[in-house]
Every structure is written in C-alpha cells, then in structure tokens.
Design a protein that fits this description.
about 85% helix, 8 helices, two-stranded antiparallel ribbon, disordered N terminus
Amino acid sequence: MIFTGSEVFAQVITNLSVNLSQDSESYWCELLEPFVWKQNYLTVTGVYLSLVFLASVNLLMIPFTLFFNSLLIYLIFFQLQAREKEKNIAVGYLAMTDLAVGLGLQPLFVATELCRITGQCNICILDNLVWYFGTVVCRSSLNHLVLIAWERYVAIKHALRYATIVTTNKLLSGSIAAWLIPIIMEGLLFIEVSPFASTIVLSVNAFLSLSIIVYFYTSIYKESLRHQQSIKETAPSYGNEANRTLKQEFKAAKTTFFILTCVLVC
C-alpha cells in the first residue's frame, strides 16, 4: 500500500511537470522542482489578491521588524548591566536573527511576489533565494529558541553553578553554531538533492527543537514549584530573600517563554 501511494504521487508529479514544462507561460526551476509557477494562476480566484495581501503585509511589517529588533539589540547589548546582559544575551542573538528577516528575507519575499504578479522578472532566481534564505533563517531561529530555553533551564535547575555553566563565550559559540549548521546543511541539501529533502530536514529540526524546548520549560516549571515548596518548609529565616530571587528567575523564564511563543506563532 505504501509503494502504491508513492507511485501514484510520483506519477502525479511527473504529469504536472510535463504539463507545466510545455506551457509557455510557466517556468521550470531545476533546484525547486517540482514547485513551479504559471502566470495564468493569477486568473484563479483569490490567487492575485493573496499575493498582493502577502506582499503588502510583509512590506508594512519591515519597518516594525527593523525598529523593534534593533531596539531590543541596543537595550540588551548597550544598556543592561553585565549580570543582566548575560541573562538576556541569548534573546539578543535571537533578535539579530529576526533583524536578518527584516533586512533580507522580507524585502526579498516582497520583490518575489511583485515579480510573480507582473511577470517581468526571473522568478526562478528569486524563488531559489527566498527558499534558501528562508529555510536558513527559520532553522537558525529554532536553534536560538533552544539556546534561550537551555539558558533559562540552567538558571533554574542549576542556579548555584549558573555562572560557570552559562558564559558569554558559550552563548556566542551557540549562536554562531545556530547559524553555521543550517547555512552549511541547507546549502548541501539545496544544491545536491532537492527542496523535498530540505523540507524533511527542516521538519525534523523543528520537531526536535520544539521537543527540547518543551522539555526545558516543563523542567523549569516543576523545579520552580519544588524550590518554592522547599523554601517554605525548610528555610523560613531566609525564605523571603531566596523566594524573591527565585521569583525573579521564574519571571525571567516566563518572559522568555512568552517571547518564544510569539516567535513560534509568527
């Protein structure tokens, strides 16, 4: 049954490829096969409006993406004290990744959709760029989300060893790896295989990243409850001070969890 389904799917893709390659108004992009675009798609109800809507939304969001992420980067790296900076530096690296979206991916996407509407450009080249850059940024963002979750996990689970486990150099190395790994892997997959393989890798990456994030924040929640109960039962004399510190860490964890949720929804 599995082989039959695969054969049917392959036949559908083959037929679609033949039909589109014979259409003078369609283009065939080798690296993106079997994803193609035909100008007469614009006559289909909703397609033209959808393209205009997507281009308009991204165009309008570019200034906000640039402004708020730049502001966040400035506040974290130039305004916070050293201790607070270390706690938030992973969020700053994520903001840099999101800034790259506003600087590169969104303008490129808008240009691609406008070219798709007008039919005056080489859409194949733009589609390739959007596909590659988009998957790289997406995977990099997921990797940074894991980095942030790990930092918060250590702050709650191993509070006494936090300063030795989480260092600026380690966070910087993690951020660099979060970029380099998808850049290299997506480059190899995109050139040597096909976007289908890239999609599979991205899906597996997303599943693993989200699973790790869920594990970290579940552990943070359980550990916070355990610490609060322990403080109340065994340390009434300094419970207020310890509890205040724990609440600050837990508040930071909730804040970063809120940020991660918003990023994932976006």
